[in-house]
């Protein structure tokens, strides 16, 4: 019995009832508005999965526990809530642990539950125990909080704290271990409490700080917004849109926050990968950073582009984690709180005196429009006759439905996408901070499940990245997700080929370990896993193929052979678009 909740009044009213631990876990998640579970059920969790089905949950079982965590992360990014990922004891949770690390670095709230042998077995001094390893200590450095349920009546307090930790400060994963003898025990508890009854929900910022920030913005010559991926993950885009319009300013995207906010697409520019953004950074005298760590890919807001122009610019930082203030650069006005609350506070402070649009904004919008149009008109002929990676990006993203979710994976192909992207998707699912290949397909699955399979999903990926979790195509087929997957195929690890050339010079190495079989056909593999397959070897035909695939209503994989020389940037990556700028992320010790 959970003592702190069973009051005499509650007991007398009959509101306390008996319930199994596994069903109580589901109730606690339902109180948070969560009714989806990712994982492969085993003896520890079959009762939970069965109960979840009876309660109307979405149950998503992948084919690899690592994909379990990635799918959960994709779901969390689309829902703005913690996701639930479950893995069996021993090898299952061990395989899922890579996704814990990914969620930690990607700042994504995922609650991982791992099974464990009964305590009487786990605590023995024995060798040769089956499907067993001491798990909790292994994961402590991979999550924000790692714990184990010792007694059934710890269930409520443990999960409540998990919800607190994964959403407080910098969001991230937690790990809860359930020994097999505990999860089927019985509790006497009342109905689950709402979140506001046991944790701080979307806290606001200090009022005096909000007033100071508003004053800086009003008196600025060229204020800008620097927007990171937390804006998308918290589903706060329309709140930030109102702020951008009140500020009359351009919006700079971080490379991780490259989802466009509906209604302000034209005034949004990618930091580092568009010339217009260079000018905006140089002119900016007040920067409002929202939903970003101001990390290495934006040169900590201090180096590279920020070292030019108005270097004495003021910084306003909307950040939930107070410990982040001032870590990467000095902050003039910290607004500590949840951006979902703080951005409306700032809007309210500016509504009485909104700024006019910056006079250069129309010119910047037109210049970037011309940049994208010029990229689409370039000569895409290749020596091999295979598709140019730039054309692969252009034709795929021109054909992307306006309301599509865009999932991305790969190395060189993603670098080309930053430059050649022709669409302005409102949701982009990509692995920024951890730089982990193979996340793309599970991310896309989780995002589409979160969306209820309503919106089309375009997943652009390289062949090497796609092979990591290609078995999850069966999940795409099983749920009949509205997904078109466009695979750029050069039969090699593209970025690593470039590293060999840059390290040893062109033709001076056999480049061991980075080339693989040219006989792989992803369209045929897709058909074997229940999806539709297409083969397109002419860039100008790719857009029509994507349109046809979406119209078919069937999940589709399109195999596109791309030119390896172009994709690897030719000799030493010299022709990879903006590769020199991408490399500035890794300026060891210089930022």
Topology:
Elements: H1 8-13, E1 17-20, H2 21-31, E2 36-39, H3 46-54, E3 58-60, H4 65-79, E4 83-87, H5 91-105, E5 110-116, H6 119-122, H7 136-139, E6 145-148, H8 155-167, E7 174-179, E8 186-189, H9 207-219, E9 223-227, H10 230-233, H11 237-247, E10 251-253, E11 268-270, H12 275-283, E12 286-290, E13 314-319, E14 333-336, H13 339-350, H14 361-377, H15 389-398, E15 405-408, H16 412-420, E16 427-429, H17 440-451, E17 457-462, H18 463-467, H19 473-478, E18 483-489, H20 494-504, H21 522-528, E19 532-535, H22 542-552, E20 556-561, H23 564-567, H24 579-583
Parallel strand pairs: 2-3, 2-4, 4-5, 5-7, 6-7, 9-10, 9-12, 10-11, 12-13, 13-14, 15-16, 15-17, 17-18, 18-20, 19-20
Antiparallel strand pairs: 1-8
Helix pairs in contact: 2-3, 2-8, 4-5, 4-17, 9-13, 11-13, 15-16
Structural write-up:
This protein is of the alpha/beta class and 591 residues long. It folds into 3 domains: 17-197, Rossmann fold (3-Layer(aba) Sandwich); 207-365, TPP-binding domain (Rossmann fold), CATH 3.40.50.1220; 378-582, Thiamin diphosphate (ThDP)-binding fold, Pyr/PP domains (Rossmann fold, 3-Layer(aba) Sandwich), CATH 3.40.50. It has 24 helices and 20 strands. The strands form 4 sheets. A 6-stranded parallel β-sheet has the order 3-2-4-5-7-6, with helices on both faces. It has a 6-stranded parallel β-sheet with strand order 11-10-9-12-13-14, with helices on both faces. Helix 2 runs parallel beside helix 8 (155-167), helix 4 crosses helix 17 and helix 15 packs across helix 16 (412-420). Belongs to the TPP enzyme family.
């Amino acid at each position: 019995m959970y003592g702190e909740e069973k009051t005499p009044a509650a007991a007398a009213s009959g509101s306390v009832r008996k319930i199994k631990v596994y069903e109580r876990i589901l109730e606690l998640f339902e109180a948070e508005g969560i009714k989806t579970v990712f994982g492969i059920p085993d003896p520890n969790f079959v009762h939970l999965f069965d109960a979840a089905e009876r309660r109307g949950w979405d149950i998503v079982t992948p084919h690899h526990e690592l994909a379990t965590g990635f799918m959960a992360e994709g779901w969390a990014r689309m829902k703005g809530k913690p996701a639930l990922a479950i893995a069996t004891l021993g090898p299952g949770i061990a395989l899922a642990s890579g996704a814990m690390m990914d969620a930690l670095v990607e700042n994504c709230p995922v609650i991982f539950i791992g099974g464990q042998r009964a305590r009487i077995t786990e605590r023995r001094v024995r060798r040769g125990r089956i499907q067993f390893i001491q798990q909790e200590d292994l994961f402590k450095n991979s999550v924000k909080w790692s714990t184990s349920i010792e007694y059934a009546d710890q269930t409520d307090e443990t999960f409540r704290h998990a919800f607190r930790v994964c959403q407080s400060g910098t969001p991230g994963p937690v790990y809860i271990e359930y020994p097999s003898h505990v999860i089927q025990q019985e509790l006497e508890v009342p109905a689950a409490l709402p979140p506001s009854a046991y944790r701080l929900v979307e806290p606001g910022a200090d009022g005096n700080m909000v007033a100071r920030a508003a004053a800086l913005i009003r008196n600025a010559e060229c204020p800008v917004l620097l927007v990171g991926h937390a804006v998308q993950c918290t589903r706060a885009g329309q709140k930030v849109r109102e702020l951008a319009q009140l500020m009359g300013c351009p919006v700079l995207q971080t490379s991780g926050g490259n989802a466009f906010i509906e209604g302000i697409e034209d005034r949004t520019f990618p930091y580092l990968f568009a010339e217009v953004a260079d000018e905006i950074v140089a002119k900016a005298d007040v920067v409002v950073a929202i939903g970003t760590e101001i990390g290495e890919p934006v040169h900590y807001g201090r180096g590279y582009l920020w070292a030019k122009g108005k270097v004495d610019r003021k910084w306003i930082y909307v950040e939930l984690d107070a410990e982040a203030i001032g870590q990467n650069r000095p902050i003039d006005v910290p607004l500590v709180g949840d951006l979902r609350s703080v951005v409306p506070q700032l809007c309210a402070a500016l509504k009485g005196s909104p700024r006019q649009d910056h006079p250069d904004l129309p010119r910047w919008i037109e210049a970037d429009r011309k940049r994208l149009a010029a990229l689409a008109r370039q000569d895409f002929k290749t020596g091999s006759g295979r598709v140019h990676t730039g054309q692969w990006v252009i034709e795929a993203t021109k054909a992307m439905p306006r309301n599509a979710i865009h999932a991305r994976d790969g190395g060189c192909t993603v670098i080309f996408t930053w430059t050649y992207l022709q669409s302005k998707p409102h949701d982009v699912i990509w692995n920024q901070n951890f730089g982990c290949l193979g996340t793309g397909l599970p991310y896309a699955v989780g995002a589409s499940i979160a969306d209820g399979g309503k919106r089309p999903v375009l997943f652009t990926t390289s062949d090497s990245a796609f092979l990591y979790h290609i078995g999850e195509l069966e999940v795409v087929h099983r749920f009949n997700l509205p997904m078109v997957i466009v695979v750029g195929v050069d039969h090699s690890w593209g970025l690593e080929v470039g590293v060999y050339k840059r390290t040893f010079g062109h033709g001076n190495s056999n480049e061991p370990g980075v080339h693989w079989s040219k006989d792989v056909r992803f369209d045929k593999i897709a058909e074997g896993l229940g999806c539709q397959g297409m083969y397109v070897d002419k860039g100008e035909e790719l857009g029509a193929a994507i349109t046809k695939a979406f119209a078919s209503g069937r999940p589709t994989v399109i195999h596109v052979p791309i030119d390896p020389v172009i994709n690897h940037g030719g000799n030493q990556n010299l022709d990879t678009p903006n590769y020199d700028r991408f490399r500035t992320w890794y300026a060891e010790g210089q930022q």
